[in-house]
Amino acid sequence: MSQRTEQVASLIQHILGGIFARDIEWPEGALATLTKVDVPADLKNANVMISVLPFNRWREVMNVLNKNKSMMHKKMSAELKMKFSPKLHFRLDESPEKVAEIEKLLNDESLD
Q1: Residue-wise pLDDT tens digits, 19-74
Q2: Helices 69-80 and 58-67 sit at what angle, rounded to 10 degrees?
Q3: Helices (DSSP H) in the chain: which residue ranges?
Q4: What is the distance between the alpha carbons of residues 112 and 101, in angstroms, rounded to a whole number?
Q5: Could you give the dihedral angle defined by the CA atoms of residues 73, 97, 21 and 62, in that order, rounded to the nearest 10 degrees?
């Protein structure tokens, strides 16, 4: 990743983090965390990785994100001040769930 794409990704993550905190009404009992933003060299898309707790509520959280995608894009575009703003693509970050599953397996193994 070039320095420019890293800077754009970091700025998008910062902007969306603020939008997540201020402007999104999350399902009760669900926690969504923006874990990473990947932006390709052409800056046309932004893959936004989302972690959800509890994990079984991921569909509800993704529905909320997709319903609010245009609002988030407009607010992000206003702050980015770029000629074209990347299109947002929300992806579920399953790594925390996988880590918890591996830790559970390791703990179960150590009990034997």
Answers
A1: 999 999 999 999 899 999 999 999 999 999 999 888 889 999 999 999 999 999 99
A2: 60
A3: 3-23, 58-67, 69-80, 95-111
A4: 17
A5: 40
Q: How many domains does the chain have?
A: 1
Nearest to 76 by CA among 89, 63, 91: 89
Domain containing 73: what range?
3-111
Q: pTM, whole model, 2 decimals?
A: 0.81
Exposed, middle or buried by CB within 10 Å (0-12, 13-18, 19+), for 77? middle
Q: Which residues, 6 or more positions from 78, have their beta carbon under 8 angstroms from its beta carbon?
A: none
Tokens (6 digits) for 33: 């965390």
Residue 94, domain CATH? 3.30.300.20
SS3 at position 11: helix
